[in-house]
Amino acid sequence: MAVAVFGASGYQGGLVLAELRRRGLRPLLVGRSAARLREAARRADLPETVRVADTADEEALAHAFADARAVIDCAGPFARLGPPVLRAALAAGCHYTDTSGEQRHVRWVLDAMDDAARRAGVTAVPAATDGCLLPDLAARLLSDRLGPLDSLFITHVVEGGTSSRGSLRSLVEGMDDIRSGGVSYRDGAWTEAAPEPAEVLLPDGAAVRTARFPLPEVVTIPRATPVRNLTAVVDADLRSRLSAAPPPAESIAALPDGPDPGARAAQRFTYLLDALATSGARARVTLRGRDTYGTTAVTAVETAVRLLAAPPLPGALTASQALRPGSFLASLSAHGVDHAVSAPAPV
Ligand SMILES: NC(=O)c1ccc[n+]([C@@H]2O[C@H](COP(=O)([O-])OP(=O)(O)OC[C@H]3O[C@@H](n4cnc5c(N)ncnc54)[C@H](OP(=O)(O)O)[C@@H]3O)[C@@H](O)[C@H]2O)c1
Predict the structure, then answer these.
(1) Is the alpha carbon torsion for 336, 340, 346, 347 positive or negative?
(2) Distance of CA 225 to the CA centre of its chain
(3) How far is it, in rounded angstroms, from Cα 157 to Cα 97?
(4) Tens digit of pLDDT for each residue in 223-279?
(5) 166 and 253 fall within a common domain
(6) Which of 38, 51, 130, 139 has a CA-to-CA distance to 64 between 20 and 30 Å?
(7) 81 Cα–ligand 1 center, Å
(8) Which domain holds residue 156?
(9) Ligand 1 nearest-atom number relative to CA 163
(10) Does 316 reside within a domain?
């Protein structure tokens, strides 16, 4: 029971339980409904070791985490539900990671909770997801290879798949940030100026139009990777799918909980990192995988397991600060996530 899963009764929580079960780990399931937590344990073929606690009661949450040493938080929207869970994890002396894709929450964890995590003697690594952790680690590999970077341009391309109910709720609550594009990183500082649409060439030579989106790696990468300008965008089709007329909050509950196994298996993601070093050298990292939710289950569990096995310095840290980028990325090839460094993309 070293690992507690908060939001274990949700869609992403269920995939995290399945990954823990696959590794022979027996998690503690935490959430607000004993019945739904027991059902989640049964579905994952795990012992029904549950603790009931709501985000409205931090003391009860900390009590629920007391038997654990690390917490994986899967309950979004994180901007609203995340702070009490992190504070309770620290109060219980647990390492912390989460499945947030929300730029604003990730920035809050890293900026506002570093001192508290240090005082608690534990490490908090937000956004252990496919979409944030993978580019964060790959950016560090690029700067290790090329030296300090003058610019880094990241493109997310996701083909197929649908959003889970929790992702839709996070999108609805974060719509103001989605419309504005969130923050960018210019001349060594974060700024509200969003990137302009551009055209990027994919590895197969096809061109893709990009669009602004508040991606979380913009707030993680510059903390461990020396870079002057950082831009992260999504392909324009993905942005339309994520932001076009999201269903009203009350009708999300009637939707399926998330993509079914067939849709997950058919989904493909490609994350491209195009770097220009201050030396003038260029390189591209291509990250490829399938099934964003299944990959997030693997990256979140791997993060928690690594925090427990080899605790880094206490604090609120990015994946690259807390974990060993090369070894972490290499461990993911067994799960269908590949990364390759190549010559620059043609311009
Ligand atoms: N690449 C990425 O960025 C990425 C990848 C994967 C997941 N995510 C994020 O992960 C999050 C989870 O998504 P999901 O689809 O798993 O959501 P979900 O199925 O709706 O599950 C949400 C979970 O949170 C719990 N919860 C909600 N409000 C609570 C409260 N007040 N107190 C205690 N528990 C509460 C729910 O418990 P009940 O069962 O009691 O309702 C449920 O267990 C989303 O924010 C999503 O965007 C991001």
Answers:
(1) positive
(2) 18
(3) 25
(4) 999 999 999 999 998 888 777 666 777 788 888 889 999 999 999 999 999 999 999
(5) yes
(6) 130
(7) 9
(8) 130-290+325-342
(9) 15
(10) yes
**Are 186 and 246 part of one and the same domain?**
yes
Protein residues with CB under 6 Å of any ligand 1 atom: 7, 9-13, 31-33, 36, 54-55, 74-78, 81, 99, 101, 129-131, 164-167, 170, 257-258, 292-293, 296
Tokens representing 201 are 């060439």
Q: pTM score, two decimals? A: 0.96
Q: How far is CA 148 from the centre of its chain?
A: 25
Q: Is the domain of 27 the same as that of 13?
A: yes
Take residue 339 and report the two structure tokens written for it.
């990364």
pLDDT digits (tens, 9 = 90+) for 45-93: 999 999 999 999 999 999 999 999 999 999 999 999 999 999 999 999 9
CATH number, domain with residue 308: 3.40.50.720
CA of 240 to the centre of ligand 1 (A): 22
The distance in angstroms from the start CA to the end CA of the chain is 51
- Is 189 part of any domain? yes
* Structure tokens that stand for 29 in this block: 């399931």
Alpha carbon of 171 to ligand 1 centroid (Å): 12
Are residue 184 and residue 314 in the same domain, yes or no? Answer: no
Structural domains counted in the chain: 2
